[in-house]
Amino acid sequence: MVTYCTLYVAQRLNFFESKPIDMKTVVVFGILNGLSIGFLNLSLGFNSIGFYQMTKLAIIPFTVLVETIFLNKQFSQKIKFSLFLLLVGVGIASVTDLQLNLLGTVLSLLAIVTTCVGQILTNTIQKRLNVSSTQLLYQSAPFQAAILFVTGPMMDQYLTKKNVFAYNYSPIVLGFIILSCVIAVFVNFSTFLVIGKTSPVTYQVLGHLKTCLVLGFGYTLLHDPFTSRNILGILVAILGMVLYSYYSTHENKKKQSGDLLPASQVLLLFLFQLFPRTTSSSSSSFLNQFINQIFDFFKKNPFWRKHQK
């Protein structure tokens, strides 16, 4: 709700222009993102930290699977290999204990599904409806807040047997809550922006970079225990991230250059449009005969095709 209020003020100050989006799409999208946050928190509450980390690691392969099946998106073997290295590295560095239970497993599966679908929709809606990350977040934030406001206190009451509204909030606690809300505004904005400009998989890669940084800062600043296993895992994960960045950039450049026609082909297309070949008697004119000879010359001498590679 703080995110919506912040964006409302920004919209009133003309920092961005509000764009209407289909109400059904916004409602479903907002509720799905709210459920994703809820299931991730419940997964952490009902599972060990190690199993929760495995849940986060499973989001990338599931996202790749969903985009491949339903969106016909192709991932090269090099991209898959770099993601594999990343997941193995983060797993080595962060996964310590794996304690399984039925309820925790179900919650983890629901968290994976809702998070993957929500992030894919974040990217798809922005591109297909031609809306910015700010416009989409502004429209969907109230519904995301509503589902959390309704279900959050109920789940707290059920799990802790305490009423969240009956808690005695001290000034220090209120200060941290306000700080958390301010940080959440920037997190929500950056999440929608990164997913919209890149892809859900790239956003997850950045998320695992955050995990490596947390481990590193924990050792540097807080002097947390740091073993050779953590170092090995972080190095492998960083290698996977570097390879993913390199292969993604290379393939995007290759795709963009492949969409451009060579100059010789553009010239031919222009001539075809300017002087179309016909089978009528008018084609016997000197000009048309000359143009036809040019066409035949290029067809018989396809040396210019080498430049397409």
From TrEMBL:
State what protein this is by name: Sugar phosphate transporter domain-containing protein
Q: Which residues form the Sugar phosphate transporter domain?
A: 22-245
Alphabetically list the UniProt keywords.
Membrane, Transmembrane, Transmembrane helix
- Recall the taxonomic lineage recorded for the source organism: Eukaryota, Viridiplantae, Streptophyta, Embryophyta, Tracheophyta
- Membrane topology recorded in Swiss-Prot or TrEMBL: Multi-pass membrane protein
Domain of life of the organism encoding this protein: Eukaryota
List where in the cell it is found: Membrane
Recorded GO CC terms: membrane
TM region positions: 26-44, 50-71, 83-100, 106-124, 167-189, 228-247
